[in-house]
Amino acid sequence: MDWRRELPREWAGQVVSPTLFSRFREYEMLAERVVGYEVDDEPCYCAHYFVLNTLRSDDDDEFYLVPGYWERLVAWRLIDGRWLIFRCLSSNEDCAQSRSFFSFADEMPR
Fold it and tell me: pTM value?
């Protein structure tokens, strides 16, 4: 697992490094969550993704599932206690285009 993949280089020295990871998978939909813990068992990294499908039809007779919305989030706890969050999401037709952004929070994203 490359927990630093989306981490901007200029913030690399400001994050708490995880030593242990827990992975949770959802079996009824395409979704997963990973939480990383530091030496003191405090969360210092989290990542999740999920895909919500929607029904689509070309002829109103046969229906099929296509992605209607997806989201990927990665967050790192900084040494000052804040969380740096990277979020990438898509909700347009066919989910082919996405938008991404960084933000800060005082608590780990849920």
Answer: 0.85
